Amino acid sequence: MKFVDFNFDYHLQDGLDSMGFEDATPIQSQAIPFILEGKDLIACAQTGTGKTAAFLLPILHKLSLEPSNVTNTLIIVPTRELAIQIDQALQGFSYFTGTSSMAIYGGNDGTAFETERRALSQGANIIIATPGRLMAHLNLGYVKLQSLQHLILDEADRMLDMGFVDDIMKISTFLPKQRQTLMFSATMPPKIRTLAVKLLHHPEQINISLSKPAEGVTQTAYVLYEKQKNELAKFLLKGKEDVYRSVLIFLSTKIKVKDLERDLIKGGLNVKAIHSDLMQNEREKALNDFRSRNVQILVATDILSRGIDIEDISLVINYDVPGDAEDYIHRIGRTARAASKGEAITFISEMDQGKFSRIENLIGYEVTKLPMPPHLGDAPAYEPLLRRPKTFSGRNKNFRKPQSRRVR
Q1: CATH number of the domain located at residue range(s) 217-373 in this protein
Q2: CB atoms within 10 A of CB 60
Q3: Alpha helix locations (H) across 181-253?
Q4: What is the homologous superfamily of the domain 3-208 according to CATH?
Q5: Which alpha helices (H) appear in 123-253, and where do they start and end?
Q6: pLDDT of 183-223, one tens digit each?
Q7: Spans of all domains in the chain
Q8: What is the rounded CA–CA span in Å between residue 305 and residue 327?
Q9: What is the pLDDT of residues 352-378, one digit of tens each?
Q10: What is the pTM of this model?
């Protein structure tokens, strides 16, 4: 399906033509008609499939037909990087439409907060906001959302993982009950459907290519001890600048991010990291350097990497196996976009073997395990079925229920 088939307002179509947008992706072809009809929607699709344009374009079409001086649409996102990314896309699409927008996120100075206050009180057409920053403004009483027509939750699964569900429900109390609500997510765990029941009204549902890695991704894995991960990363990347022009490495915590960045720099590699201890301008510089190929390797936690929208990533390394099997598909979807080729390598420690086995069950095949380089020492055997938790029957005074914890 082509974008001209949607019969968008000519101002919006002029913007698409100038950007070279012709063919709609499957998520766009299915979602845009529902949104134009005013229906609530819950849509699940992998990263890189065009979700941002799927919800921005029909909203911009409506605003082009009925210009407004009030806030028409609120887009809630989990991270400042994603807020900036959506705002940049919006500025391109809306270039000829006159639609106003503002990205609202934490980590800025008082001047930025004042600019945000004016946008929220005077009515920028489209607001893109992180939950915490928006709540800070809402609590001060000047935000005008009485005329809001559209609420969009992007990367909904990540917002729930980050603990934003209470903020989202609180924000919804400030909004008109009569509105169109759209929920977009890369994965669809049960908790997303629970949230959808609370916020959406008889939603249409779209599920595109869930739980299937992109065909162009070559997947391999190494079974190893935790202490071998940094050395393996250096071995795989050293001298491979021409092979891997851009490398994205996912880790579970910012402590690991800092440690790996330090070791890779000592190894002479061109690397930068993004983590929550950096100032916003430092994080933006790291992303821009990676995007412009001034930096070959970017090291990040999964949460902070959600705002990375970069073409032609050569290699994705899962330094830690993700806790959710579908997150694995989302991560490796950062490479092999738009029918290109890419590579994904996963490090499987002893404690992560069970999690990786669930990933293999989800995708329906076993990922090739490569032998560890001999100079890095012996590696554990891959025995995921032997690492299932024991079941206990009856009363055992020596058994204590393990404490659950989530580390980000």
Answers
A1: 3.40.50.300
A2: 26
A3: 190-199, 229-237
A4: P-loop containing nucleotide triphosphate hydrolases (3.40.50.300)
A5: 131-138, 156-161, 165-172, 190-199, 229-237
A6: 998 777 788 888 999 999 999 999 875 556 767 789 999 99
A7: 3-208, 217-373
A8: 12
A9: 998 899 888 888 889 999 999 999 999
A10: 0.65
